[in-house]
Amino acid sequence: MSFARIQEPLEVPDLLALQTESFDWLLGNEKWKARVEAARQAGRKDVPTQSGLEEIFEEISPIEDFSGTMSLSFRDHRFEPPKYSVDECKDKDMTFSAPMFVTAEFINNTTGEIKSQTVFMGDFPLMTPKGTFIINGTERVVVSQLVRSPGVYFERNVDKTSDKDLFGCKVIPSRGAWLEFEIDKRDSVGVRIDRKRKQAVTVLLKALGWTSEQILEKFGQYESMRATLEKDHTAGQDDALLDIYRKLRPGEPPTKESAQTLLENLYFNPKRYDLAKVGRYKINKKLGVDSEISQGTLTEDDIVATIEYIVRLHAGEESMPGANDREVIVEVDDIDHFGNRRLRSVGELIQNQVRLGLARMERVVRERMTTQDVEAITPQTLINIRPVVASIKEFFGTSQLSQFMDQTNPLAGLTHKRRLSALGPGGLSRERAGFEVRDVHPSHYGRMCPIETPEGPNIGLIGSLASYGRINAFGFVETPYRKVVDGRVTEQIDYLTADEEDRYVKAQANTALNPDGSFAESRVLVRTKGGETELARAEEVDYIDVSPRQMVSVATAMIPFLEHDDANRALMGSNMQRQSVPLLKSEAPLVGTGMEYRAATDAGDVISADKAGVVEEVSADYITVMNDDGTRTTYRVAKFKRSNQGTSFNQKPIVAEGDRVEVNQVIADGPCTDKGEMALGKNLLVAFMPWEGHNYEDAIILSQRLVQDDVLSSIHIEEHEVDARDTKLGPEEITRDIPNVSEEVLADLDERGIIRIGAEVVPGDILVGKVTPKGETELTPEERLLRAIFGEKAREVRDTSLKVPHGEQGKVIGVRVFSREEGDELPPGVNELVRVYVAQKRKITDGDKLAGRHGNKGVISKILPVEDMPFLEDGTPVDIILNPLGVPGRMNVGQVLETHLGWIAARGWDISGIQEAWAERLRDKGFEKVAPRTNMATPVFDGAHEEEIVGLLDNTIANRDGDRMVQATGKARLFDGRSGEPFPYPISVGYIYILKLLHLVDDKIHARSTGPYSMITQQPLGGKAQFGGQRFGEMEVWALEAYGAAYALQELLTIKSDDVLGRVKVYEAIVKGENIPEPGIPESFKVLIKEMQSLCLNVEVLSSDGMSIEMRDTDEDVFRAAEELGIDLSRREPSSVEEV
């Protein structure tokens, strides 16, 4: 049931449209064509008629040789079906792609001969239906980029010395040279061409063919232009051109022709300069010029209009006349406004990359045209597809915007696909971005979520698309509004960009309306230009929001009572939902927001029926549906697959044989979903109270029940892989026959030397036996004799088996073997590849991090036996104890309201006799009696009100004795589990939805015994991955020095670190139970001496009696001791992580 009051006229749009529609446009497939047709029927003018690939093939055609006698052009690209399915690609480390073919025509202009061929242009990665790409077997997402739109921008700066307003203007193209104008404190108008030195603007006008008279006639009334013209000493066009050339190319001899060509190439040559459609659209709009949208270069009109605009701006005028008798408002631009920032989605990012590849290919084609024999030329001989393939591969493999998909849970994946990033090539860098760019801007409303953004250096640079936002053909984000006509709300819905929205007056979605759609009050709270809020008369309102959750993203819209949370905590809540781990059993929240179903289905991790029909067969792996149209559909159910983050991806059917299913009905749940609803955590009974100081500072106390009953247990799957390669000394071999290994260690390996499925493994266990040939050593005469007598002894091999790394354990659940002999495609030099999947069930334990949805996070400090937990009067023990001090200072009161409503939902209610207004409203919606454990929806900004919660707490269904455990105040009488005494004061008790986050203590806890050392300094490596130690740093050394703990310090800096001889001797002494010997000289000291000697300084080390100490490298004793202890010193200790 839902507490919503507002009827939403519009469903939330497809949440993955941002990705899929953009990619469909790039390919120009059937789905895209159908969408374009539908938009045309609806009378929309702004739909693109060309697909992305068509655009670039048309741009590059024709490629002509230097003399213009031959040309090559491309048309009609098409795709063959992909070679492998998505699942096969994941399995075999392939890229999910389709071969692309293009029709290429070679025309010999002298003879008029045309040769046409279909040319293979390489494999083009395809998007899966879920909006991801499979690149080399891993799932990746291409994030949309927020960039400054091409166009013309005017800005005002204040001069520091004279306090005068200075005006500047930039004309920014999609690609090409910038053109900048500025008016300085002496009121002269300057121009910067291609970021070079400033010149008088009149020089540019003269170079374009204007005379001084024409300039005076057009701009004579402006003091600034007259002053500029007086200072300008160039006479006529030629002189002006030469002047520009000298500034742009200093040191080269200027001629009129070269100057003319230079200027032409900079701004008027379509090959070198392109505003893109969006740039032309912005310039036409801003300057009031009337050029075709396809006009990609600047025109003389643009330049003149720009100069006039900046001069009028300087003169303080409000408007200027544009084309077709339009009045253009003269004002400076706000660069952070969403009308000036656009999105480059997947399609456009890949298109730009392909464009780069084609441009590189174009050079090759030109060269080949001149070198090859004209008669023998065919399109195939001219084209080299390598640069195109390479640039696509480079983009998906290394671009900052192509990211390893976040698959912790379905919400994480969905949010990742809807992410908007201002970073990346052509965007901002973290260091350069100031406060203004990161700040929330009024134009973000309904377009980018003001809440969901990372904490840390990327704050405000990475955002999330708002739930109703959509992207128009120019890449601007639009948001829907309902039209208001004469103070009455209509059903008509208009999508507005940030620019258009500024012209209107908008009311918010929760404005009170009468049944006929008119406003209930005469004055309405509205937003006007620049996000200002004021009260306006009902007749002045133009639009009203479609939904209260319009301004927030999907993750934020899943926080109940968001309206009662401080934004900083809501931010943490949004971000932490994405880190929650899929649990063994998912449980939908008792208190949700109504967004859960859409989020789960659109994330694509559930299975939905494609057609209506009846379920014919259900098993763990397949669901077969007999469709109404007589066909059968079989759906594959994924079982315990590993996600990118090592969480378990497991689907389970929720329909039974004989069930009727409709189109898009969920037939199988995925991870973190419950009956098709997003279910990231568990509903736990919480008490807000301190407990013996164990929940001080956000620590959390849990009940042992959650451990025993696997309430918060999750499955984690690790993948371990090993390959057998060809080495210089012969091939490596995967085998059970490993030197110096006892039979019990090999007990779980099969005859191939690979572990059996179902084996329990602990750190150090062999998963795959592998041996590598060792170099032959020089034989002694005795050995040679023995060898001659007994024949060839087996070659020396060493054990390089794949072992379970430190701190990991579990059950082997899967083994995949790929071998060259079986015909699997493997990287060069690899003969066999084995992957072992180890799963572990992780129960909740102290040190794990838990969180609610309101940014209320904490670490478990203690798990109490059930009998020690505080309990309610009927004996029910609570599950979790939170510290009440975590609420007031953090200002996330939403968690308290959730606690109360959670209790109400768990208990159910009956309000038959209540006459109050809130009860009437619930009765009208048919919620007079509600059964226990009913899920509630309290949508953001439109949720349950306080009087409803208070009233319902008083009317929850009583237990069989007629008692209510929790009073109308939301508090209950709790008893101490240890003494059975009641606590002195009533305590808030209720149900909260708790998430278990991916920050698990098992992955973080770490201790080092003996491990790898760094090659140069011989000091232990750092970090858990390297099995490293804890650094005893500079400050810690000072602390011990201050205490005078000389011996402890000496031990730390020598035998525990980099005294190579000492540490072996100490190990020996410990093993033999002797006293620890004196420390020697640390390796880092030797390195320091060597460094100084390398600077030609003669440095000697003297002992206390003045004798020179020799720095010997190793000692015979050491080798002896090492041999006894079984330490192999012949091999240098590994220096890198790979070797470890």
Integer average pLDDT: 91
Number of strands: 57
- CATH homologous superfamily assignment of the domain at 150-338: RNA polymerase Rpb2, domain 2
- Low-confidence parts lasting 5 or more residues at pLDDT below 50? 1133-1140
What is the percent of helical residues? 25-40%
Walk me through the topology:
Layout: H1 17-27, H2 30-41, H3 52-60, E1 63-64, E2 70-79, H4 86-92, E3 97-108, E4 113-125, E5 133-135, E6 138-142, E7 144-148, E8 151-158, E9 165-172, E10 179-183, E11 189-193, E12 198-200, H5 201-207, H6 212-219, H7 223-231, H8 236-248, H9 256-267, H10 276-287, H11 300-315, E13 319-321, E14 327-329, E15 341-344, H12 346-371, H13 379-382, H14 386-398, E16 402-404, H15 410-417, E17 419-421, H16 435-438, E18 462-464, E19 470-471, E20 477-485, E21 488-496, H17 498-501, E22 506-507, E23 523-527, E24 533-537, E25 543-545, H18 567-577, E26 591-592, H19 596-603, E27 607-608, E28 613-618, E29 622-627, E30 632-636, E31 641-642, E32 648-649, E33 652-653, E34 660-661, E35 666-669, E36 673-674, E37 677-678, E38 682-688, E39 700-703, H20 705-708, E40 714-727, E41 730-731, E42 733-734, E43 760-761, E44 766-768, E45 770-773, H21 781-790, E46 797-799, E47 802-803, E48 810-819, E49 830-842, E50 849-851, E51 857-864, E52 880-882, H22 894-907, E53 909-910, H23 917-924, E54 929-930, E55 936-937, H24 946-953, E56 971-972, ...
Parallel strand pairs: 7-17, 22-25, 26-55, 38-52, 39-51
Antiparallel strand pairs: 1-2, 2-3, 3-4, 5-6, 6-16, 7-15, 8-9, 9-10, 10-11, 11-12, 13-14, 17-18, 19-20, 20-21, 20-25, 22-23, 23-24, 27-35, 28-29, 28-34, 29-30, 31-32, 33-35, 36-37, 38-57, 39-52, 40-41, 40-49, 42-45, 43-48, 44-47, 45-46, 48-49, 50-51, 50-57, 53-54, 56-57
